[in-house]
Amino acid sequence: MLEAILLRYCQFTKYVVSLIGRSVSYLLPVLAAIVFYEVFARYVLNRPTIWGYDTSLFLFGYIAALGGAYAQQREAHINVDIIHAKVSEKTRRIFDVLTSILAMGFLVVMVKTCGGMFIESLEFNYKTQSEWAPAMHHFWLMMTVSAGVFIAQYSTELM
After folding, report:
1. Which of 108, 118, 146, 158 gets the highest tally of CB atoms within 10 A of its CB?
2. Residue 40: closest CA among 134, 32, 28, 129
3. What tens digit of pLDDT does each residue of 83-139 get?
């Protein structure tokens, strides 16, 4: 019974992380187009936009944060191969478990901190310090969600 529940949890987490990771990859061409347009508007038209910098910064944050769990799922993160490759398989597993536990601890702090910043940014209507001044709450919510998804991904690796 417990084994079936854990298997379903792992399958669901793998599906969600993969869906988010693949979905966020479609933001890369959007980010490239915005940066291209901003450079074109600034240097060719001599009329920079007021929204280009903030939008590209937010998109980059979304791509990096939401893609992190997917990169972990695909084992695309960098290991210290000098040590990792020279030890036995059992020692590698111990390193991986310790790394996962440390990362999850950091991510729990991140969920707590970013969740608090999300609530605070809604309460005080935080905005960026640019001329356009878009709201910041969506960014803090995304950081909270991405850290939670990352925790879920790490938890499947410990099972």
Report:
1. 146
2. 32
3. 878 889 899 889 889 989 999 999 999 999 999 999 999 999 999 999 999 999 999
